[in-house]
Amino acid sequence: MNMKRIAIFASGAGTNAARIIERFTDHKTVQVALIVSNKPTAGVLSIAAAHHIDTLLIEREQFFKGDGYVALLQEKKIDWIVLAGFLWKIPDTLLRHYKGYILNIHPALLPAFGGKGMYGDRVHEAVLAAKVSESGITIHYVDEEYDHGATVFQADCPVLPNDTADTLAARIHALEHQHYPRVIEELICR
């Protein structure tokens, strides 16, 4: 089996990216080959450096109005794109080239609490305001709409009466770290 190469797109601290990198360190068939970020100060870039993984800092104009970095991703022989806290919408050029090979994780049970602007604490605050009894994570394929592509996996956790956005986020992060690397592996290696 050929080595499958992943590009992780991330905008933040990179805790999910770190778990994914750990999962595939010395893996027989999957390699994290590139970390892509739109923020020069993103913590994920330090994680990439510590693991000697190539990085790419992308620029808005080329991402949305250029080729979406498709040529560079092809040059690096990227097979899959994994979004891990990446806040820009994926442009059509990238979606067309990697159709069915772009995954995202969302910190709620989609279709609830998804869509444009729904990320991080905004999601947890909306969940708390709605007074629902459970939240969770959704791993899904990426399509032309925010948080819309076909669901691959969901896991839930209770929303407790005394929860804050931070306490709920901690349980959601635990689910993300537990499941995202495993689900990625199952999809790529099937």
Quick recap of the structure?
It contains seven helices and seven strands; from the N terminus they run βαβαβααβαβαββα. It has 190 residues and is α/β, with parallel strands linked by helices. It has a single domain (4-189), classed as 3-Layer(aba) Sandwich (Rossmann fold), CATH 3.40.50.170.
End-to-end Cα distance: 11 Å
Low-confidence stretches: none
CATH topology: Rossmann fold
User: Which CATH-level-2 architecture?
Assistant: 3-Layer(aba) Sandwich
**What is the H level of CATH, i.e. the homologous superfamily?**
Formyl transferase, N-terminal domain
Q: What share of the residues does DSSP label as strand, in percent? A: 15-25%
- What is the domain total for the residues? 1
What is the rounded Rg?
16 Å
- Mean pLDDT across the residues is 96
Decide which structural class fits the backbone: alpha/beta
Shape: globular
* Assembly form of the protein: single chain
Order of helices and strands: EHEHEHHEHEHEEH
CATH class: Alpha Beta
Which strand order do you get reading across the main beta sheet? 3-2-1-4-5-6-7
> Total helix count?
7
As a percent range, the share of helical residues equals 25-40%
